[in-house]
Each structure stands twice: as C-alpha cells, then as structure tokens.
C-alpha cells in the first residue's frame, strides 16, 4: 500500500483517548467507526470535566462567592472559545443549548412566535432537503402544522447529492426560512452552501445551517458561510453530551422572541410582565449545562491545537482510502457519493441482500463498531429504496489499518451469510 | 464463538426459506415497525371461531426478525387461540430473560424451533427484532376479535 498523504500522527493522538485501548469480545481491540453518532473524548476533556467538579463547581451568573465567580468565568470562557472556533463576530451570538436538535427547534419556535418580517404563517413557506437528519425535519413539520406554512424540500440525485435544478421553484418570494445540513450524516455529502445561501438571500429568506457533521471535521467559519443561524452539537466533536450550540446573527437574536422562559433569561420580572436579558442569555433559560460547556471549551482547545485544517486533510485521506477499499468488496453498494470529492467521512453502504442489522452484528463480534439502521434519516433510505444502511464513520484518530479491519470484517460477514 | 449462539442454524434456515410468507386473505391487518433498525412487517390473521386458520405476512428486516416471523407462522397456524397465546407468553419470557434462562425440556416442547432464539436474548438491541412479528400477530389478533365483537 502506498502511504496516504496528509495523515495525522494517530499513534500520538490515540494516546489521548483511553477508550480506544478498550478490549471487547474476549480480547479484540475496539475499532470505533461510529463517529458520526458520537466521537470519543480525549483525556484533556475528561480532565476538564473533573477539574470543574472537583475545584470550581457552583451555579453561574449569581452569587458573589469565589466558586460562583470561577464557574461563571469558566462557562463564559467556553463561550469565548466556541465563538473563536467558528469565527463569530461576537461572543454574544453564541447560545448554549443541550444539543443540535434543541438548537434547530429553538429557531423553528422563534420564527413561529416572531412578528413580521420573520413570522412564519399560512402565507409563507419553509424549505428543507430530503437528506436532513430527523432533527431538521420534524421541527419544521411541527411548525408547518401549527402555522399552516407550506413545507417544501430539495430532492436528491442518484449519486447522493442535492438536486438543485429546481432551486428557483423551491426557494421563492414566499420562503421565510431555508434549513439544510452542511454535511449529510448518512451519506457524507458536503452540500453547496453558496448556491443555496445566494438564492435565499435573493428572496429575503433566512438560512439555518445544521453543521453537526461539519463542526467536528473541518474549519467552520460562520461569516464565510453567510447563513443567519448555524447549529451543532458538542458530543460529536470530542466534547461531552448535553451541550449544543446555536450561533445566530446579533440583530436577529435581538429581534426574535425567546422560546423557553425562566431564570437567567430575564431583566426584570413583575407579576404582570417581564423584560428579557440581551442575547445570548435571553435564550438560555434556567441553569445551563455548565460542566458540559466547560468540557466543550476543552474540546475546542484540543481540536484547535491539532488544527481543523489538518483534521480535515486527515479525514479526507482516510475517506479516499475507505471508499476505494469498500468498492473492492463484492456486492457492496455505497449510498452517497462514491468518490472522496465534496464528501465527509461518514460512508453508508449496503452489502448484497444481507440486512445491515446482521452486518453490524457480525462486525461487532470482531470488535468493529459501526452504526446500522436509518441513521435518523429515513427519507434517504426511502429515496434509494433500501430498508437501512450500514455506516462507517471516521475521525481524527481513525487509521488506514481500521479501514482494512472493516474490509476484512465485511469479508467475514459475506462468508457468514453466504 | 458467541455469535453462533445467536445465529443458530435453524434461524438461518428459516431466514433463507421462510414459512408462510406472502399476504393472503385475513380478518385484520397490522403494520409494525422497529424504528431503531428499520425492520417492518405487514401481517394478517385469519380466524375461524377460536382457531387460527392463517397468519400471512410480508416485510423486510434482518435475519432475526424474518426468521422469527417464519417460526411464529409455523407455531401458531392451525392452533387454538388460547394455546397460541400461551406459546407467545413463553417466547416473550425467553426473549426477556437477558440470556439467563436455560430452556428446559418443557419449554422446548412448547417453543419447538423458537427455542433457537434463546441466544438472541443476550443481545438487547436484537430482542425487538425477534419480537416484532409476535407483537404484530398479537395486535392483529386483538383487532380481529374486537371487529368480530362489534360486527
């Protein structure tokens, strides 16, 4: 095998991830290829979580004691780190949520309750795509049902890309919001942001980008994207679960109404009415996920120290190799782009008529962790006429040897059900 | 190998050569899905009094769910309803045993081929696959009976 270009020093990186040494099923070393579902966590993040609870734990933004001040500084410090990570013009544009789903739901609810010119109602339209994660479909179905707005979407081409041939009919003067994923969680497709944003801006629609599968894997610059909102989650990018991010343009966050009411999001409260704190606090009712935000801050530090451009290059090399090797497996069909061009490191496939559930089970027996099923993107399975897929997804610690293990594992699957 | 305890020969046999597959005339029809993995089954039951005349089904899914439907068809068709319900209860008990129940002779006599699914009960993610067709059958039977009552 010719050496791959652009690989990271995975030997060093893997030392940061204790779980990657785990043995499963009687002494088989785990081959973790389920990174699109959640990433593993480096020791640096685990240490930050521990240190927070052992040394600094208190509630934030209240209390004058030393622990409260330290906890607040750590929590708000994490906001600064995230803001820098995504090149946000202002730290006040970074809202902490519990996950990407909550971020997406938050925007859908803001728009449902908003006044003109943002208000989504029966005269208006919402645009999504057929390759969205359920978390970027269902909130819009709910909004559509509640407001009477029409829900429209872009279909898919046979090779797993967005079909934008009818973009002028899909995004129209009636469109209030266009919400789409930057990278497909099931097919790995990287979508053409510019074309969609340009058309949305032409008709005055807002744009929400689901960057859950992008933020962990490539440099993310919210200003370059040109969107109005960007959502992602912490646990797929080396952070803990329970922390997500919604970035939004400041003027929108000022104009749009809050969704959840409670402590921390207010300015003054009387029994008759209340006024609200400025963003981001306006959208962070109640005690936030403090330790989780601190953990995400540590994850951002970790990724930044390695370099998002280097991580992107590493994954591109691994993806290129994985696509090539997988296509050598008899009866294997990739669902999605069959080259590494404009694609991320999540690769879905079907193997003959062996059901993905069976594929995953036999792989698991060999210590190989993949995801099987709909991947919360059932419309994609329907579109390609398949019951489900097997998905292997890679990250900064993935190695060519793990790709080889997968391919050997699939050979074993074929023999088992052959 | 542990895997062989799940994929028993008899299960793979049923998967490759399913019994009673295809939709035929019935008194009630249900469609059940297993949302975590995409297994689906459409199932019809045909009753004659308290006797199960036919259980027909069509679906897609993993080997466990498909084999289980085949075994279920074999076990309940031609049986009296209360008898078949008992078989279902024993199967449910086995599947919920988390691999801790060693089927004895009595259980083997009741479950016949279905006893091969004992190994599946060790895999929490797969128990639903094995139960999908049985739950669909139970649901369809309940519907057929309630339709008969209201008729």
Automatic annotation (TrEMBL), chain B:
Domain NIF system FeS cluster assembly NifU N-terminal span(s) in chain numbering: 6-129
| UniProt-listed SUPFAM superfamilies | SufE/NifU
The family database entries (InterPro entries) matched by this protein are listed as: NIF_FeS_clus_asmbl_NifU_N (IPR002871)
Q: Which Pfam families match?
A: NifU_N (PF01592)
* Family annotation (PANTHER family): IRON-SULFUR CLUSTER ASSEMBLY ENZYME NIFU HOMOLOG
UniProt protein name: Fe-S cluster assembly sulfur transfer protein SufU
What is the native source organism of this protein? Answer: Streptomyces fildesensis
Write the gene name. Answer: sufU
């Amino acid at each position: 095998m010719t050496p791959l270009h652009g690989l990271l020093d995975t030997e060093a990186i893997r030392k940061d991830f204790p779980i990657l040494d785990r043995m499963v099923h009687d002494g088989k070393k785990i081959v973790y290829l389920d990174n699109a579902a959640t990433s593993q966590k480096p020791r640096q993040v685990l240490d930050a979580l521990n240190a927070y609870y052992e040394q600094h734990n208190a509630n934030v933004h209240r209390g004058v004691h030393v622990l409260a001040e330290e906890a607040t500084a750590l929590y708000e410090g994490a906001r600064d780190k995230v803001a820098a990570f995504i090149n946000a013009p202002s730290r006040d544009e970074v809202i902490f949520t519990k996950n990407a789903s909550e971020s997406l739901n938050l925007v859908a609810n803001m728009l449902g309750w908003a006044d003109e010119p943002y208000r989504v109602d029966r005269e208006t339209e919402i645009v999504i795509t057929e390759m969205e994660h359920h978390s970027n479909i269902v909130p819009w179905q709910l909004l559509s049902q509640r407001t009477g707005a029409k829900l429209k979407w872009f279909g898919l081409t046979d090779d797993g890309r967005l079909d934008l041939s009818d973009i002028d009919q899909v995004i129209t003067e009636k469109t209030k919001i266009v919400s789409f994923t930057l990278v497909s969680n099931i097919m790995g497709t990287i979508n053409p942001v510019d074309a969609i944003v340009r058309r949305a801006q032409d008709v005055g629609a807002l744009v929400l980008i689901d960057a859950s599968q992008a933020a962990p894997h490539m440099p993310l610059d919210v200003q370059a994207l040109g969107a109005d909102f960007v959502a992602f989650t912490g646990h797929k990018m080396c952070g803990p679960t329970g922390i997500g991010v919604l970035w939004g343009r400041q003027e929108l966050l000022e104009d749009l109404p809050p969704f959840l009411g409670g402590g921390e999001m207010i300015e003054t409260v009387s029994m008759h009415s209340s006024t609200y704190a400025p963003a981001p606090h306006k959208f962070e009712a109640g005690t936030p996920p403090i330790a989780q935000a601190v953990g995400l801050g540590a994850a951002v530090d970790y990724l930044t120290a390695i370099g998002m451009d280097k991580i992107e290059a590493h994954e591109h090399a691994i993806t290129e190799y994985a696509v090539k090797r997988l296509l050598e497996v008899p009866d294997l069909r990739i669902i999605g782009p069959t080259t590494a061009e404009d694609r991320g490191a999540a690769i879905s496939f079907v193997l003959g008529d062996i059901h993905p559930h069976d594929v995953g089970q036999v792989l698991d027996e060999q210590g190989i962790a993949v995801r099987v099923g709909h991947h919360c993107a059932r419309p994609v399975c329907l579109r390609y006429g398949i019951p489900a897929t097997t998905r292997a997804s890679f990250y900064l610690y993935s190695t060519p040897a793990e790709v080889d293990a997968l391919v050997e594992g699939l050979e074993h699957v074929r023999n088992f059900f052959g | 190998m542990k895997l062989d305890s799940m994929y028993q020969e008899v299960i793979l046999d049923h998967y490759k050569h399913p019994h009673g597959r295809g939709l035929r005339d019935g008194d009630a029809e249900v469609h059940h899905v297993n949302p975590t993995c995409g297994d689906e089954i459409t199932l019809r039951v045909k009753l004659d009094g308290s006797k199960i005349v036919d259980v027909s089904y069509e679906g897609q899914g993993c080997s466990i769910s498909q084999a289980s439907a085949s075994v279920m068809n074999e076990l309940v068709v031609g049986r009296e309803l209360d008898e078949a319900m008992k078989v279902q209860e024993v199967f449910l008990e086995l599947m919920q045993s988390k691999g801790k129940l060693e089927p004895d002779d009595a259980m083997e006599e009741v479950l016949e081929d279905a006893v091969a699914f004992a190994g599946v009960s060790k895999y929490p993610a797969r128990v639903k696959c094995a139960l999908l067709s049985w739950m669909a059958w139970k649901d369809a039977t309940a519907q057929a009976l309630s339709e008969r009552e209201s008729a």
